[in-house]
């Protein structure tokens, strides 16, 4: 392998830039010619590929978002798009590809690898839903953002004796919501993996919290929970629970901002390892954080698998928030 391209794909996550910087600089030190692909897989299919030198990735370590930009690419889910992606790489004389993103991005990597092309994935998504890795680039920063937001919401919730529903991202995963609830002292996390919780049960939790003498009540609602947060808030507000109810959707704020120390650390380590894996013939693997190590996890072992939420965290959260 003499030349390698890197792209970021799917929802952006803080620390993706740190990952690109690590890939480019480690690649250059390994004697490779490095390229950046703009706008994710869409840019690859369109041939938006630029050479990247050491200085091109200066001053991005501390910046949120992704300077290569990203996109959601429906074409990459079709056999035609997948063939086109590989054709562009061969056209440019590029021998290997590193992709940074979530499970959709890894599925794209798999389709490229199936055509015999060397690829390595790096998990980057705030959803923390990628199977086989303890965490992904961006999760820690998003958790810090959510934690700060809920701390602020608690001030106003306590001042008005209100129950607040706070919606977090995560698509069809409750991981981010459960971790958010634990670190924010929330009374409850409503997640897609526990879809049968009723409005009455939620109301009971709020009423019990009022009866125990609490001045406020925080409930984290994952975006994938079947009852929409707004609908739930209106229903709860109309009930006689002690607390009136309000809702806040933290939305895209969770995806932005300066990456935390931890996200810069894992992004830098994973970027470095991705080059090591490619140059030592470990293809079609993802840089997975397992314990303290970053290991090459075969992408076919993780694509399409739903990563369960940490049940123990939910249990601890429920006990501690009483
Ligand atoms: O995958 C990251 C994520 O932020 C999810 O939590 C959310 O469901 C989705 O992306 C939003 O996607 P978009 O940026 O396309 O609106």
Automatic annotation (TrEMBL):
<dbReference type="GO" id="GO:0061621">
    <property type="term" value="P:canonical glycolysis"/>
</dbReference>
<feature type="binding site">
    <location>
        <begin position="21"/>
        <end position="25"/>
    </location>
    <ligand>
        <name>ADP</name>
    </ligand>
</feature>
<dbReference type="GO" id="GO:0003872">
    <property type="term" value="F:6-phosphofructokinase activity"/>
</dbReference>
<protein>
    <recommendedName>
        <fullName>ATP-dependent 6-phosphofructokinase</fullName>
        <ecNumber>2.7.1.11</ecNumber>
    </recommendedName>
</protein>
<keyword id="KW-0808">Transferase</keyword>
<feature type="binding site">
    <location>
        <position position="103"/>
    </location>
    <ligand>
        <name>Mg(2+)</name>
    </ligand>
</feature>
<dbReference type="GO" id="GO:0070095">
    <property type="term" value="F:fructose-6-phosphate binding"/>
</dbReference>
<comment type="function">
    <text>Catalyzes the phosphorylation of D-fructose 6-phosphate to fructose 1,6-bisphosphate by ATP, the first committing step of glycolysis.</text>
</comment>
<keyword id="KW-0479">Metal-binding</keyword>
<feature type="binding site">
    <location>
        <begin position="72"/>
        <end position="73"/>
    </location>
    <ligand>
        <name>ATP</name>
    </ligand>
</feature>
<dbReference type="InterPro" id="IPR000023">
    <property type="entry name" value="Phosphofructokinase_dom"/>
</dbReference>
<dbReference type="GO" id="GO:0048029">
    <property type="term" value="F:monosaccharide binding"/>
</dbReference>
<dbReference type="GO" id="GO:0005945">
    <property type="term" value="C:6-phosphofructokinase complex"/>
</dbReference>
<dbReference type="GO" id="GO:0042802">
    <property type="term" value="F:identical protein binding"/>
</dbReference>
<feature type="domain" description="Phosphofructokinase">
    <location>
        <begin position="4"/>
        <end position="278"/>
    </location>
</feature>
<keyword id="KW-0067">ATP-binding</keyword>
<keyword id="KW-0324">Glycolysis</keyword>
<dbReference type="GO" id="GO:0016208">
    <property type="term" value="F:AMP binding"/>
</dbReference>
<feature type="binding site">
    <location>
        <begin position="102"/>
        <end position="105"/>
    </location>
    <ligand>
        <name>ATP</name>
    </ligand>
</feature>
<feature type="binding site" description="in other chain">
    <location>
        <position position="212"/>
    </location>
    <ligand>
        <name>ADP</name>
    </ligand>
</feature>
<comment type="subunit">
    <text>Homotetramer.</text>
</comment>
<feature type="binding site" description="in other chain">
    <location>
        <begin position="252"/>
        <end position="255"/>
    </location>
    <ligand>
        <name>substrate</name>
    </ligand>
</feature>
<dbReference type="InterPro" id="IPR012828">
    <property type="entry name" value="PFKA_ATP_prok"/>
</dbReference>
<feature type="binding site">
    <location>
        <position position="246"/>
    </location>
    <ligand>
        <name>substrate</name>
    </ligand>
</feature>
<keyword id="KW-0460">Magnesium</keyword>
<feature type="binding site" description="in other chain">
    <location>
        <begin position="125"/>
        <end position="127"/>
    </location>
    <ligand>
        <name>substrate</name>
    </ligand>
</feature>
<comment type="similarity">
    <text>Belongs to the phosphofructokinase type A (PFKA) family. ATP-dependent PFK group I subfamily. Prokaryotic clade 'B1' sub-subfamily.</text>
</comment>
<dbReference type="InterPro" id="IPR022953">
    <property type="entry name" value="ATP_PFK"/>
</dbReference>
<dbReference type="Pfam" id="PF00365">
    <property type="entry name" value="PFK"/>
</dbReference>
<feature type="binding site" description="in other chain">
    <location>
        <position position="223"/>
    </location>
    <ligand>
        <name>substrate</name>
    </ligand>
</feature>
<feature type="binding site" description="in other chain">
    <location>
        <begin position="185"/>
        <end position="187"/>
    </location>
    <ligand>
        <name>ADP</name>
    </ligand>
</feature>
<dbReference type="InterPro" id="IPR035966">
    <property type="entry name" value="PKF_sf"/>
</dbReference>
<keyword id="KW-0418">Kinase</keyword>
<feature type="binding site">
    <location>
        <position position="162"/>
    </location>
    <ligand>
        <name>substrate</name>
    </ligand>
</feature>
<feature type="binding site" description="in other chain">
    <location>
        <position position="154"/>
    </location>
    <ligand>
        <name>ADP</name>
    </ligand>
</feature>
<keyword id="KW-0547">Nucleotide-binding</keyword>
<dbReference type="GO" id="GO:0046872">
    <property type="term" value="F:metal ion binding"/>
</dbReference>
<dbReference type="InterPro" id="IPR012003">
    <property type="entry name" value="ATP_PFK_prok-type"/>
</dbReference>
<feature type="binding site">
    <location>
        <position position="11"/>
    </location>
    <ligand>
        <name>ATP</name>
    </ligand>
</feature>
<keyword id="KW-0963">Cytoplasm</keyword>
<dbReference type="GO" id="GO:0005524">
    <property type="term" value="F:ATP binding"/>
</dbReference>
<keyword id="KW-0021">Allosteric enzyme</keyword>
